[in-house]
Predict the 3D structure of the following.
Amino acid sequence: MARRRTTIAAVFVSLLLGRAAFAQQSPSPRARNPEGSATGKSTVLQPDTDLIDAPTAGVLDHGAFANRARFFSNGGVADWVSFGVYPRVHLGASFNVDQLLGTGSPVKITRPELQLKFRFFDGERILPALAIGYDGQGYLYNRPDKRYNQRQRGVYLVGSQEIGVPGLQAHAGVNISDFDSNSIFGLLATSFNIADKVLLMAEWDNISNYVDSRVNMGLRVYLTPNFSFDFAGRGVGQGGHFTDGVARGAERIAQFKYTGSF
């Protein structure tokens, strides 16, 4: 297990050291078309602001909005709503519901959480685009301890860079989820956009030690320019249980995301 994660880390780090052009305002190589199509509908994709769990340096366009719903283990559902409130800035909120689907009961809702991201640097030839943000949404809420088993990202800094091949990007970042402990975590991720139809994603997230870090892999299918579907595996290769008895092992998730503009 340690050898496999070390190999994945080496691949990600080598990608981040590659030099490639990065001249566009968005971390995505897609062209912008603010006028949309002749029908008045957008014909280009919004930037990928997140992969599976990892954020990117991308932000929603000014005046755009997005709604993302995630379906995860034990009938749980998490939902995010985000808005491009200013150029380079988007703001959002999320909430988590346990046992909403299936026969489990009772349905339990956790408190809403806040997301904020500011893209302060668009990148240059050898420098990645950079964004700073805050994300309060964790995963697998531990009700006896009143905290998430998989902690919220908290304050983070992330960079995104296109490398070598059009559509291939590397992402890296650091975050502090809890200022009481001041523990610093890292993330390494890569994504590959294939003709604006499919996005392949791989992440090594929550990097502080091997036990708590997570390897996530999945794909995103763009059904239309405004609607996408994700299927992914989280915590690949993990085992054991959290303190409340919930399994720590691998988890399959599905996500739907809709984007539009005002």
Q: What stands out?
A: Residues 1-41 have pLDDT under 50 and may be disordered. The longest helix spans residues 2-17.
